[in-house]
Amino acid sequence: MALNNELSGITVISIEQAVAAPYCGLLLADAGARVIKVERPEGDFARGYDTGAGGESTIFAWLNRGKESICLDLKQTGDQDLLRQMLTSADVLLSNLAPGALDRMGFSRANLRSQNSKLIYCAITGYGETGPAAKKKAYDFLIQGESGLCSVTGNSESPSKVGISITDISTGLTAFSAILRALIQREKTHTGADLSVSMFDVMADWMNMPLLAERYLGGAPARSGLKHSLIAPYGSFRCGDGGQVLLSVQSNREFKSFCEDVLQRPEIVSESKFVDNTSRHKNRFELDKIIEDSFSNYDTAQVINLLDIAKIANSRLNDVSDLSNHPFLRNCEVEIGEHHISMAALPIEGASLSKVPSLGSHTEMIREEFRNQKT
Description:
The protein is of the alpha/beta class.
């Protein structure tokens, strides 16, 4: 039985911008929640990230389909009052404004809890809500640098950031899971929860492998590009047609199959310099040359076929154009303005999210709904 609108009946008020909170809101909407996106009068600045959809932002479309948009000027008393009214019956408040911004407008946790004891309040920040770094501006790239992620990414010559907004996405995913936990807890306690998710904390947790190596294994591994700091053979290998294949051999049993069935060099298995992973890694440059010499006799498809038959984990080294045309890729169609664009579908199928809200397209409807609710 598939998941199907399991959060139907849940209302989320999301005062969100950029990527982290909007991605969390997207996942909540995909699970069937009603997500009301609160935007400043000029709109979420992510609407201006690009103009690929006939002047509209494709990145905004990815993050905001399936939501409702209301424009509020939270510096104005009337709009503050409307938001307060909306929150009296909401299930979740999600925000990634600067720490303390909502408090200064009268939307502290204590004030909101006094009006709605079941409200789940989830704040996404860069470095937490207290302490010396709370007021420090935080963007995905900057957190990658601060957390050490860039130092373990790239090749031996230079560090690099990850090529996607991994900090934002991982933080949005963490916030989503925390909200789901809070909803489950609320079923037992009939009381909401206060959640605070720091982008730095999320990335620090994801950095635990190199962090533990630094503390207990003699130092963090050096940047190795597509190679591995401990395992061989592992990495990218060029084939006769110029394509590159990634492979990873994780055990002596796999290495035996690899040598016999792929390289057709069974004698290598018993050589002392390749007898176990430690030895193979120590002599990895010689081993890599043997592999590339062998692969040069085949095109990419032939190498992958040999690896698949031998049950050696492998993949192509694809670019984004290859992904766009990949036979494994599941696409979905999204409507933004008068345009339709195709993008990768969410990995867990949920609600059918195809419509991206125009700026403030639900403002009057929502104002009327909560005006009537108040009276």
